[in-house]
Amino acid sequence: MNVSFTPPIEELIRSEVASGLWAPASEVPREGLCLMDEQDRMRTARLDQLRDDIPTRYGRAASQPCRAEKAQRSGRARRARRPA
Fold it and tell me: Helix 27-63 and helix 7-18: axis angle, to 10°?
């Protein structure tokens, strides 16, 4: 497979190789692709965890009265206690 890079990316690759951190130039984009793959896997794992948590959190929230409902009940109770 042949890949073309823009001049700024080619310069970045050359500077990384010149720094001595990378031996062949092909290692720089390879490492970038490995990091992208790792980030994608981490993102997928986080999304899966959130999807798993939604039913648990929703179930907990659904079993507790909403603050608005509590405020309505409180207001109605105060109104009922007022003299007519």
Answer: 100
57, 45 Cβ separation under 8 angstroms: no
Tens-place pLDDT, residues 52-70: 888 777 776 666 666 778 8
DSSP string, 14-83: HHHHHTTS-SSTTHHHHHHHHHHHHHHHHHHHHHHHHHHHHHHHHHHHHHS--HHHHHHHHHHHHHHHS-
Do residues 12 and 22 lie in contact, with contact meaning Cβ atoms separated by under 8 Å?
A: no
| Integer Rg of the chain from CA | 29
For 34-52, the three-class secondary structure string (H helix, E strand, C coil) is HHHHHHHHHHHHHHHHHHH
Q: What is the Cα–Cα distance from 13 to 28, expressed in whole angstroms? A: 6
What length is written for the chain?
84
